Amino acid sequence: MVKPVVDFMQNYTQTPSRIYDLYQYYLGGGKSGVPNVNQPPAGQTGIFSGGQGGGGIGALQVGSPMMNPQTFYKQGYDAFLKRTQPGLFAKDTFFGFPTQRQDVNPVDAGAYLAAGMDIPQTQTMAGKLQSGVNKTKEGLSSILNKVKGIGPITGILGAMDRFSTLPQLDQQFIERAMGYRGPTIFGENTGGGYKDPFGLNVRSAFGNYAERVTKEANKMTDLLSGKITDKYQGMFDTDDEGLSFDPTTGKFVGTNAAAVAKANQMNKMNLAKYNFYTGMDKQRKFNKKIYEQNQKVMKKEVAQTQARVDRNEDNINKGAEKGNKTGTVNPHSKYGKSQGYTGGSHNPHTDTGWSGSSKSSSSKSKSKSSGRKNYGPHG
């Protein structure tokens, strides 16, 4: 069963039958009971037929800028910034007024950025007005709820979406790759969702695109260095040194010039796919490296900040102990616990926030005895 094309971002009226087809599809009406998000549309071929692959009206061809992983990811990252930090884009306004603003102070915003996290945003009055206008385009949930006789579709589809259960870094990678809605090697993207040049859904209810790019990179490496290399070695009766796939350059190399030229010419699409997913996998690993570095920096900064807080608190309690500050030593502070203070009650009007505490007698005697030297058998 081919997945029904139901674009809920358009203004045309959805019919109950089309929505029900979509419902049946997600319940298991697709091939083998599970929708295959990577299967090309009916009548179109995969990428390994003759090495060139692709097909369909408006299909991407080898050499398209979107097959460059850096170009693809940059478009996604720009779209991500537009969604999360609309103030950076002048056109994200409503009658000249910004639609969103940061919901945290500049210091906290810096902490979010250092952690690789999205800065919380809140709508301005202009944004709320714009949202009211945009409500004319109904979303999936509201439409499904209005269709009678289908059942609790919204809950089922929502339960199937596992995006929120993915690892945080994978979610971030996916969100930053969601920017391209153009054609794939199979033709026009009629569904309107975010897809990569080779037809994979970037944002999928069932899969994990972050993991998939790594699997695709490994699969293409094995295919090009194994089955395809053997094919062209056999075609030209070469030895092992005559032809090989170089994963560094992403091309076939070797001493047999004819075999090398033929293999590279006939596998342009396969090589493009290898280079794309290898580049995306490198981006994913780079993101992880930066995240881990930022985490180390943040932990160090938090520890330094906590140390300053502790020192200030200790100074306040030591001052109270000497009678230089109002209140008494707070028994719940680090210093108060180390000195054995107990009792008293909370008092917000004192420097220490506490009144009436005292040091126990056992703590006093222990403090005195700790000053004596120990002249034992080795003294």
Q: Count of DSSP helices?
A: 12
Biggest β-sheet description: 2 strands, antiparallel
Low-confidence stretches: 6-20, 22-53, 136-141, 146-151, 370-379
Determine the fraction of residues in helical runs and give it as a percent range.
Answer: 40-55%
User: How many β-strands, per DSSP?
Assistant: 10
Global outline = elongated
Structural class: mainly alpha
Radius of gyration: 32 Å
Sheet-strand content, in percent, reads 5-15%
Q: Please write the string of helix (H) and strand (E) elements.
A: HHEEEHEHHHHHEEHHHEEEEH
Mean of pLDDT: 74
Widest sheet, order of strands:
1-2
| Beginning-to-end CA distance, first to last residue | 90 Å
Would you mind describing this structure in some detail?
It is a single chain. The protein is mainly alpha-helical. Helices cover 47% and strands 6% of the residues. The chain contains twelve helices and ten strands. Strands 1-2 form a two-stranded antiparallel sheet. A two-stranded antiparallel ribbon has the order 3-4. Strand 1 and strand 2 form a beta hairpin. Helix 8 (209-235) runs antiparallel to helix 10 (268-321).
At a glance:
With 379 residues, the chain is mostly helical. Helix content is 47%, strand content 6%.
